[in-house]
Amino acid sequence: MRKIFNKIISLQILYPFRFLIVISLITIFSIIQLFFLKFDFTIENLFPENDQEVEQYYSFRDEFGREDNIISLTYNCDDPFLLKNYLENKKITQNLSKINGISNILSISNLGIELNISETNLPDENLTQKQLDEIRNYIFKYSIFTNNLISEDGTITSIILEVDESFNDHPGRLKIMKDIENIIDNSNWDWYETGIPVLRTKYVQYMIGDFIKFFPPVTIILLLVLYMMFKSMKIVLLPILTVFISVIWILGLMSLFDFSINIITYIVPTLVMIVGVADSVHILIKYNQDIKISNNTKISIKKTIQGIGNAILLTSLTTSIGFLSLLSTNIVMIKEFGFLVAIGVLIIFLVSIFLISSLLILMDNKYPLKTKSSKKGIRYYILKQIVEVNKNHHFIILIISSIFIALFIYFASKVESNSALLDDLSSGNELFDDMKFTEENMGAVFPFEVIITAKDEKNNFIENGIANSRIIVFVDKIQKKINSIPEIRKTISVVDYLEIINDNFNEESEEKSYLNDELIFQYFVLNEDIFQNLINFEYSKTRISARIKDINSTRAKEIVKEINEWKSENIPDDIQISLTGTTLMALKVNDYLVNNLIISFLIAFGVIFISMGFLFKSLKLAIFSMIPNLIPILFMAAIMGIFDIKLRPTTAMTFAIAFGIAVDDTIHYMVRFRQELSMNNGDFIKANSETIFSTGNAIISTSLILGCGFLVMVSSNFLPSRDFGFLSAITMFGAIIGDLFFLPTMLRLIKPKTGN
Q: What is the pLDDT of residue 559?
């Protein structure tokens, strides 16, 4: 492989313009492909394949329809049953009902249409305050409406919207949200928008918004830091151009092979930028060192590529192998992410090597680049101090490192993974504040579903199914149990509607009719529109639709366990209970993603360890070269423990990124160390010193560039972006410590054989 690579480089040095033409043609083709790039932010793609709970959730949706399609618009008007407020509610309700994509709407002003309450269907001009007071009393008579349409104190009101299935994707939800805002913005009330459709739409907007928001300042920071290093704008533009072209290539590839930008793969361009800048800086720093000696561009480039090209190829291969480990998961999105990053890293390698070297040749820069790596620069001073510390205090380094590693492990043990759905947001964020306001005033926000099946253990159908009065009694009992759980603040079942319908029926009768099998069945048939989403076609299943507070995954498991244990003691065997819904699935996915990412990380660690063993032809060297890579990871985990940053999918992915960066720096160090060891007749101290002066310069430079870029993201109001930026910047510092202090100390102490 090395011979083939060197031959291609020789051809590229001879024909740089031809290589640029090829790169340009691929770039143009990729730009064309960008017009066909798809966006898919469907949460279901995160569900694990062949999972029983997932299949149960899909079965629930097939029978009862979606429960993640409800938007709640909550407002405070002190008294919603004053005539002016009631009429305003009615006008807004009518306008909202006209939005394309809204299949159903419920408010205090159209409640009568749903339940045949004649008073609420009176013409506006005929409504009196007395009648409105009667409507108020009617609504508060039944618990189904409180903490649903109106708060318990009667001051907070909600309008409930149901999103049509065909519009329940990101483009559809986004249009609906804009139409809603156009209507409610004309009202004098303060509105609070909640619900799973709102949550999903806002999350996507935050992701895309952060990318647009931070791309310009990150680019400017990269330019400034690079200019401070090289003092040449035309040289500074090379890494930026490399990054841009690499991003275009990977996005074009995604479009060509029908991959979509989703809630996981949206981070791929950022990773491409990170790796692309690092590779470019390594090449330019090495080129700057070589051209000072030869003062000939072609000779310098050949020497640069031969000296560092193989190292970049090795880092690209190991990083790709690391991300390919994600193919071991059974989540489609994660597989796609791992594959795309693996391919993207190889694309970066090709673009960095061939684009930069071709442009340098054509620019024919015959003079050394002015960089801060001169002996008068601060980086030279820093490197000199690092060399002196490694020479004279290697035992102290080992002791201090051991102490800090122990501290890192201690604080890392405090990291929690039981995240809640709103953990990605914080106070001051509009969505977070809206969710918390609604939760505090309406009791809960997130959907929670209980499925009751009227079949025995042998799956035999019970007579009349759900229309059996005995079954209804137990449905009521189960609902009361669900209501007793503190975090569950609202439940709706067939029992609630049967009570209202039976009361209305008995108002026209001299004697009160009590529910029996025949009457229940009659109510079901005559009020099919009301019950169609509460009972399945066979009458064998019904649902208790509840709303639950923002709980973490640990508490969710406790609730599931509590209900199942209660069921076994209080409900007969011919009535089965299962728990499902978007909330439980989302929490399950969070835990599942974290666990899978950790497993994939361990697989990647093992695979890269084996690869480094083959690379360095030394088991001992492979072992001790992997240890420094644990330092940035442990450091990041310790910071998470100290600042109570929970282990979520976003933070778990940062571990993979951190490991990739650390391994790349280690390989660069080790490749150069082997060269220096050979040139210095096996003198470990001198080899370490020369490696620090050369490769250490690139490690510090790339860490500084990337660290500054990541820190920009700390200003985000979206917690995943903020945590990603903060933790990644921390990792940069940890990688420097591991590779420039701990690794040289280990190499000096163990004196391994480095192979041929």
A: 95
